[in-house]
Design a protein that fits this description.
Length: about 425
Amino acid sequence: MPTHHIIAIDGPAASGKSSVARALAQRLGFSYVNSGAMYRAVTWHVLQRGVNVHEPAAVASAVEQSSIVCHLIDKQSRISIDDHDPTPHLRDDDVNRAVSVVSSVPRLREILVARLRQYANKDNVVMEGRDIGSVVFPETPFKFYIDASPHVRVQRRLAEGQRDEIAARDRADSSRVASPLVIAPDAAVIDTSALTIDGVVDQIMQRLVRKGLPVHSQTVTARRQRMNPYYWLGYTLSRLLAQIFFRFRILHRERMIQSGPVILAMNHQSFFDPPLAGNASDRAIFILTRKTLLDHWFWGWLLPKLNIIPVDQEGSDRSALKALIRILREGEATLVFPEGGRTLDGNLQPAQPGIGLVIAKTLAPVVPMRIFGAHEAWARGSKKIRLHPITIVVGHPIFFTQADIAERGKDVYQRLSERVMNEIAKLTIDGNG
């Protein structure tokens, strides 16, 4: 029997279970374990050894001969195979193509299930996968099956630039002989099609309390920061006018983290970007701007009421970073443009290290977002506004740990920034770019 509490989160691809499991673990102070990452790691290792993934015996033999070590580092699961860290390769194209085939090998699943069960002796755990409640920890009373409609799941994958065949993936996961994807008889099923991440986590928290999990009362429902009247008016008018004149829409708003510290990271195309980005969140967000704007009597009165944080134009990098860190440590949300300034040609620009420094100092989760059409509507340097459609796509949150900043090289901030920018670059409009 496990010596700690185990919360099992199962569900099909693109159901939102990973984001929900991470957010739930963070809310509870539990460790987060992604079982899928373990299967991807082994798939990468098998491919590196040149094994034919369509030969189950060869796959099983390769895994049996390997040294697989599972760790918990800063409340996150990490795996090493033969002293190699496969983490950077878990989403490689060849791994994406082979992971379902490799994961269906019964002997491999037997080995990895035993490894997954070892986490129960290390800490309280939120573990997500496809057979956690049915096979890995069937005795846990805390089981949840996270689902969404096939259409919603397809759209989520397309918006990430992924073209997985959801129906085929579901058939493969549900029909495999070893540990098929099933709903455990005593699992609570939650459909995420029309829910935010926080909304799903709130539902789970309430069910956990009813099932007897000791939970601090203040963590059951996430605290929501309220908008002041000025911010609410600007928030409402900007969305209404943008919808009327620019057919403005936000895709996958359900991925937004609506409580606690969070960095909204978006590419920068136009002066339209800050107010429109704010509409992706149900709460007020903080935005940095030049201190000189406050010299005008009207803007000096209004902008602070809109959560604008003034920074000195000279030495603005240092003052801006200090302000961002302070705001995040107070549990608020901020909008950051990793590129630094607005694009000249509408294309994505290289990431600057500033956001990486803020991540390293706060470990705040990042929600990547990408705006389309704002450059065409109001390009940098142009005095003419065009009625061009504008769309914002919200990506899956990125959660960072101390392990991500363990290497203290001078380029660590740049690498963190580039990781965020790479996630922004993957986002597309319904798969059409």
